Amino acid sequence: MTDTSRRSFLRGAAISGAGALVGGRVAAQAAPDPAITELQPWQQYLGEGVDARPYGMPSEHEAHVVRRDVPWLTADPVSSVNFTPLHELDGIITPNGLCFERHHGGIAEIDPGAYRLMINGLVDTPLVFTLDDLKRFPRENHAYFLECAANSGMEWRGAQLNGCQFTHGMIHNVMYTGVPLRLLLEEAGIKTAGKWILPEGADASAMTRSIPLEKALDDCLVAFKMNGEALRPEQGYPVRLVVPGWEGNMWVKWLRRIEIGDQPWHHREETSKYTDLLPDGQARRFTWEMDAKSVITNPSPQAPITHGPGPTVLTGIAWSGRGTIPRVDVTLDGGATWARARMSGPSFDKSMHRFYYEFDWDGRPLLLQSRAHDSTGYVQPTKDMLREVRGENSIYHNNGIQTWAVNEQGVAENVEVSS
Amino acid sequence: MTDTSRRSFLRGAAISGAGALVGGRVAAQAAPDPAITELQPWQQYLGEGVDARPYGMPSEHEAHVVRRDVPWLTADPVSSVNFTPLHELDGIITPNGLCFERHHGGIAEIDPGAYRLMINGLVDTPLVFTLDDLKRFPRENHAYFLECAANSGMEWRGAQLNGCQFTHGMIHNVMYTGVPLRLLLEEAGIKTAGKWILPEGADASAMTRSIPLEKALDDCLVAFKMNGEALRPEQGYPVRLVVPGWEGNMWVKWLRRIEIGDQPWHHREETSKYTDLLPDGQARRFTWEMDAKSVITNPSPQAPITHGPGPTVLTGIAWSGRGTIPRVDVTLDGGATWARARMSGPSFDKSMHRFYYEFDWDGRPLLLQSRAHDSTGYVQPTKDMLREVRGENSIYHNNGIQTWAVNEQGVAENVEVSS
């Protein structure tokens, strides 16, 4: 957005009242705006004191900013997944109260005093740690995204869910504090035959996944804090495994046991689930790393353009399980022309990145797309490119380019353009 | 902590039960630990579903992790300040629900639809912005600490408050999303005579502070999001001013007006308050930048050592209004010998930093101190060094070194050692 365009647009907000259009809202201000010239209620009375909020909550005016589920998505009477309201957020940190949750046995409520972590299998000394034991090891702090392998899964069959909260909301980005898993494994002593680990959850589903030892010794964390405070119950309180860049269900929550073995276990969640059936009947398996991906969060179906033509801020998020996101391209015309977005905010390895693109909207229909480039040189593909390789059976690992169609009224909807 | 020490310590946790000491807690395990060998309640029943928590909250087991006030600190029937529970947090992000709050007229509850920001005074075009108008300007994302100038103020007269939550808890560190103030001022056009700005709050106290134009054009933000979501009411919802590195009350909350003038206004909060009366009767004024400071958060009076002798993790936070913190020193013997702490987590300009020091506690009394070095070469002074220069009248700007005494039982208390 040029200085001129901003100036011309906001001249309209001059107190003189000359401007009939302020940010697109029609407010014929023959007189100065009473909302600023008259005393407002909150200026006249002592507000609520601090004692009322020992643990603070959002304003009542933000009550619509919540995690939501998709009723028809899960058969259970109780839904087992909800979605992060990406269109209401900004920056790269997902607040703990809004991090999407997915579980296979409900939210376990664990007494931290009775919490234990066992390391057994191919080790010199099987060990059991209390929560206090874990806090006696050196800690590290890292921000990582967690994306469910099924994020955008419904979109394989075409545009279905009308909002980025539902198409891309199975992701969050959190600053974790935890102990490198390597230190705990060294404590037990891995036998030479040990090549894989099997983390197990303490919830009713006893979630398990096979993880190669190399990854476990590389950057995995046994985490007990998220964004500064204790893990939330739905995120694995008191302890979860952090597996940077890899699909979400490997980040075992309510972590109770880590078994060391000489080969993968081929359990349910890595065979019948979280695998991709290809056209030839073969299945892609152990596709752990999340490929580079991006989505425009504003404008989007849940966040239309309400201010009419003129200066408009487009923003979105991008991430890669293989590194950082040095570049995101955006298009307003369905891919005919692309422009480079502006990145803003910290760029961490395997963490969410924020991009912006400011433009003067002429009020004509838009076909919005974003395309992420990661630090390995990988470029986010179109959905058609993915279908060409993986066919039509897939549910998981859809990192294809998302399209939003915006009409003259600024209303956005989920569409697909052939590519 | 050496590998040997860790190994010898945790051998005690072997399932064999050989170890009577697990992390210092006496648990004579002739038999394996039932907490890990027996089925626990949370493994046997379906947990709560996602629908119950559209906006998530901490575990019921974390109910003690809250902001607290000091009843005798404020005369009002309603306290006007509470403190961040630093001893319960880790990393560098302060979760929104636990960010300390200080206000002069209670928490204003503003209707975002009726929100307005006026820029007037020495400008070419006085302007009024709605919240939607502000969101049409380019945004940036930055993490900054906010410290109240009165943080540690009670400690000028010696060790008084028994816990880092109360001695140092008027600080938080948040990732903000906002519009550079410079862009809004350029929009209005600053007249040549304009040298200062006066931000004004929309709360009942109409808080105002004089800020030099150079700072306003440098790195100030008009922020509407904190840690990804909308500002909290007690943090200025829907819009606050962010004044990186400068004392907290300049970060005007519920921002309603910015006046441009040719000189400072000398209002109440920069004359009778937030100034330091020196021995000669003169007062230090406009001491905006917060000097480098640090505090050990664990162990501390609210967080004693409970595991007895052996491997112990010491941690704390450090910050500087003038840059980053490349180095923190810690001492276990009241300053006789110093060791360099390990920094972990992102290092941002004018942001909180996290440090750790792992050591084998021999069970003897400790005198714990931390000493921050900032990127300008400034070294955090002792309280006595500050008193020598500023005398005994001060309340504000105490960045002196804090001492915790730990006894043989691991109990910590706030003390002072002459230096």
Automatic annotation (TrEMBL), chains A, B:
The keyword Oxidoreductase applies. Its cofactor is Mo-molybdopterin. Signal peptide: none annotated. GO terms for biological process: sulfur compound metabolic process. GO terms for molecular function: heme binding; molybdenum ion binding; molybdopterin cofactor binding; sulfite oxidase activity. Keywords: Metal-binding, Molybdenum, Oxidoreductase. SUPFAM superfamilies: E set domains, Oxidoreductase molybdopterin-binding domain. InterPro entries: Ig_E-set, MoCF_OxRdtse_dimer, Mopterin_OxRdtase_euk, OxRdtase_Mopterin-bd_dom, OxRdtase_Mopterin-bd_sf, Sulfite_DH_SoxC, TAT_signal, TAT_signal_bac_arc. Residues 104-265 form the Oxidoreductase molybdopterin-binding domain. Residues 285-402 form the Moybdenum cofactor oxidoreductase dimerisation domain. This is Sulfoxide reductase catalytic subunit YedY. It comes from Roseivivax jejudonensis. The lineage of its organism: Bacteria, Pseudomonadati, Pseudomonadota, Alphaproteobacteria, Rhodobacterales.
